[in-house]
Recover the amino acids of this structure.
């Protein structure tokens, strides 16, 4: 959310302050500067003084609302911005800020209406189109999001964030050449746009050039960038070096990037292992499931570690005429978290107290929340890889659901995770080889436990077997999922469905058997081998 009053199009910064006297304009500039430097407390003091003299001034109310939001007072922020929009209903920037605040509060529908109104009021306001696209993306409407991002770029060529967002959306839609052009346009506007470099590096089917590698090496050494930005550049550099078969240098780049991210985001591997122990203990006695044994028959869950073939599995299933791929939706995790909040106990502490009626209620809630994914096709795939600790809950909530567990060689999985730049706050285990190994062991032992506890409910789809013999493996997968064979599943790379993961470009190519990379790094991966007990 932008604190300054200048529009992202570079309009006259004082145009929203013309109705203030010189002293008040100076104070409002001061408040904006304080916000930009993260001093919300001082900014609020200045803004409250201004509001005492100008209680209905649009820009003062807008900055005050932003200040309240930054200081964690969402209700007060919304009250301020709504007062401003009532007094100034034709102000596009106010509507844009209202949408941002509503989105931050979780009201995506309200945010959508506000952003659309801002675009209507000022069709050239690039930030409103960018925000609308981001909001649509959060609702998994990537096609409409991409159209909004394209409008933002059209309104303001050189708007780096809009180019990057449009590139990511185009990649998800399989329009790879156009995605590359958008990332290149962002870099042309701002060579230090690390997220554009990251977008290019994510397109793993196209190699980075020598000039790209040189530019990334410069970025990684640029002291003007913060540590996270240098780490993002480091992941992209490592990928470029690996493509050039400069493996020791690639490893050094990945290691440096991961070390920086670990400093920013600590991880407690021992605490995670204890949580997995607790989940196993909670399901030592299988809970009585929902009474309706068919509940969930319209759902296929795909679980795995990241980079283990789950996107490919969803792509194959999504190519079936009866199936819709929903991607990495968080509905199951949200329902479990809400149940934990309502009970005042964390998962899995309440598992043994849940009745069959409780599981039925939770299963019905899941189906209600995900109904839109079955509006065209009768079955949807939930590919949230982080659901593997919830397999027991799935079995109890949705007895009719199928569960597919994607597995890949442990060393290749771990190394691929180490190379991957994940969104901040996700997959926090992945920033050291030792932590990755411990996490894989936790995953592996819990999946073996689930197999023993729920025999026949889980199908292991092994990536190496799938790529070696696609048709028999795909036939077995479809049979497990209760789906008739469809030849389209053998040509899943030709599907035009949306893919919103790091494998978006890879799954649009025919199956390959030459994706193993760990052997190129020799003893450099010994810490991972030791953690995996290999």
């Amino acid at each position: 959310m932008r604190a300054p009053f200048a529009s992202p199009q570079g309009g006259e910064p004082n145009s929203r302050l013309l109705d203030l006297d010189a002293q008040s304009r100076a104070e409002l500039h001061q408040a904006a500067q304080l916000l930009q430097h993260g001093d919300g407390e001082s900014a609020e003091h200045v803004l409250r003084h201004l509001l005492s003299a100008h209680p209905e001034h649009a820009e003062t109310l807008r900055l005050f609302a932003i200040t309240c939001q930054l200081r964690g007072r969402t209700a007060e922020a919304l009250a301020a911005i709504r007062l401003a929009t009532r007094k100034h209903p034709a102000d596009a920037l106010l509507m844009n800020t209202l949408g941002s605040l509503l989105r931050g509060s979780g009201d995506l529908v309200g945010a959508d209406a506000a952003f659309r109104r801002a675009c209507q009021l000022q069709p050239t306001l690039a930030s409103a189109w960018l925000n609308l696209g981001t909001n649509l993306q959060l609702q998994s409407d990537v096609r409409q999001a991409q159209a909004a991002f394209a409008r933002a770029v059209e309104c303001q060529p050189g708007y780096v964030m809009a180019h990057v967002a449009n590139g990511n959306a185009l990649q998800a839609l399989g329009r790879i050449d156009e995605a590359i052009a958008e990332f290149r346009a962002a870099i042309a506007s701002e060579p230090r746009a690390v997220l554009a470099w990251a977008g290019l590096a994510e397109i793993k089917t196209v190699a980075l050039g020598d000039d790209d590698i040189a530019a990334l090496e410069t970025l990684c050494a640029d002291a003007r960038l913060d540590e996270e930005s240098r780490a993002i550049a480091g992941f992209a550099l490592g990928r470029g070096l690996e493509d050039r078969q400069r493996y020791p240098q690639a490893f050094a780049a990945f290691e440096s990037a991961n070390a920086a991210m670990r400093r920013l985001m600590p991880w407690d591997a021992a605490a995670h292992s204890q949580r997995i122990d607790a989940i196993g203990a909670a399901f030592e006695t299988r809970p009585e499931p929902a009474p309706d044994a068919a509940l969930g028959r319209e759902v296929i869950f795909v679980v795995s570690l990241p980079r283990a073939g789950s996107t490919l599995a969803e792509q194959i299933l999504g190519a079936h005429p009866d199936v819709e791929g929903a991607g990495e939706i968080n509905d199951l995790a949200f329902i479990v978290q809400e149940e934990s909040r309502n009970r005042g106990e964390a998962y899995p502490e309440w598992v043994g107290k849940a009745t069959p009626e409780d599981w039925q209620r939770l299963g019905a809630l899941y189906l209600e929340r995900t109904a839109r994914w079955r509006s065209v096709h009768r079955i949807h795939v939930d590919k949230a890889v982080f659901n593997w600790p919830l397999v027991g809950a799935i079995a109890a909530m949705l007895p009719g659901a199928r569960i597919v567990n994607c597995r890949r060689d442990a060393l290749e999985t771990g190394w691929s995770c180490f190379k991957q730049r994940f969104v901040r706050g996700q997959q926090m285990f992945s920033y050291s080889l030792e932590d990755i190994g411990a996490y894989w062991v936790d995953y592996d032992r819990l999946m073996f436990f689930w197999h023993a506890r729920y025999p026949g409910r889980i199908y292991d789809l092994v990536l190496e077997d799938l790529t070696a013999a696609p048709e028999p493996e795909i036939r077995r997968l479809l049979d497990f999922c209760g789906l008739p064979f469809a030849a389209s599943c053998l040509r899943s790379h030709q599907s035009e469905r949306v893919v919103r993961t790091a494998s978006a470009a890879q799954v649009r190519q025919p199956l390959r058997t030459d994706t193993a990379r760990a052997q190129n790094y020799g003893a450099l991966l010994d810490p991972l081998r030791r953690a995996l007990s290999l």
Notes: The CA atoms of residues 118 and 341 lie 36 Å apart. The beta strands are 299-304, 323-327, 379-382, 402-407, 458-462.
